[in-house]
Amino acid sequence: MEQHVKESPxxxxxxxxxxxxxxxxxxxFLTTAGIILAGxxxxxxxxxxxRQWPRRHRPVQPHQSGGQAxxxxxxxxxxxxxxxxxxxxxxSADPANVPLPIHRSxxxxxxxxxxxxxIIGEITDGVLFHYMTFNGQVPAPMIRVREGDTxxxxxxxxxxxxxxxxxxxxxxxxxxGGAAYTTVSPGQSKHIRFKVMNxxxxxxxxxxxxLDYHISSGMFGLxxxxxxxxxxxVDHEFYFGQNEIYxxxxxxxxxxxxxxxxxxxxxxxxxxxxxxxFNAITAGKYGALKVRExxxxxxxxxxxGPNLISSFHPIGNIWNKFWLQGSLTNPPFTMMQTVQVNPGxxxxxxxxxxxxxxxxxxxxxxxxxxxxxxxxxxxxxxxPVPDIFEPVKx
Length: 394
Ligand SMILES: [Cu+2]
Prior knowledge:
five-stranded mixed sheet; Immunoglobulin-like
């Protein structure tokens, strides 16, 4: 059995050559523009652009020399502007892309393939960023297994990557949660097997030397270990991940924002986001989630951090069930308003929907929601229930 963590096949698109006004293939256009096509969305990866760069302008690669100073240099000098000809790729994971519940009574071995992939995305309008991801999305793909299953994991570092990567599963007993055996250089693959012993939602994240930088740049996700008896059925399951991004304002809209290590040490991020981008899952960006009055919603939530505690709150509702730390060996708390989710941890949360409304998922360290990009919207359709809520005209 293999989880759907693979990407769609590459598609050739035709665009217009503005010089000759005749259609050329997108890959041909990019090659002409000094970029080689890579990736399903037709965007050149950061590593490709890096290779196109004249050697004398290349930054020192951190994993060649080690140490934080070299990382800083690498980030400050990172990326030429040739990708300005392209629309940056979406990195924000679709919250509705959740693996189906498990209905079986025996343990199996599940193959999971993850690919470390560095891509240029856009945090918000005009702010390009060199994301580091698993499989091109933030948070990384949700993995769903059953207590007692064996995860057969292969981690590959994309050939276009600039950096080495690894993965630490909090659901794995083993040195570094597997990270000690999964450090991969660009083009390399490593393979581990581990048994998931305890039910719950657990984070996985990159765990190389500069793991704070890598996690802040997008390398974290959630693995759900269902209990043997399964989870109660609900109408909707969604998947969200929070992280903070420490960047300076970009020079201009064509130059990726530079990562600021001093601000990361001071824990002063520029952005704090849900699913990788500023207010990504809202009507104003990729669209709000749609549900109906009377339904039940379950959210699998991972806080990548790397440093900030989340105070997770559904504005206009409360969590009628909340599994602290994502642990399913304890009973849920009930009727919780704002819950704490530590960096490097998860939560499972449920909401009931007694009235039609727009629910806004927020971090109630509320400046993060008011100004820094942490917002998602769930639109509940249905008929007004004046007994529960009624706007009164004065
Ligand atoms: Cu990494």
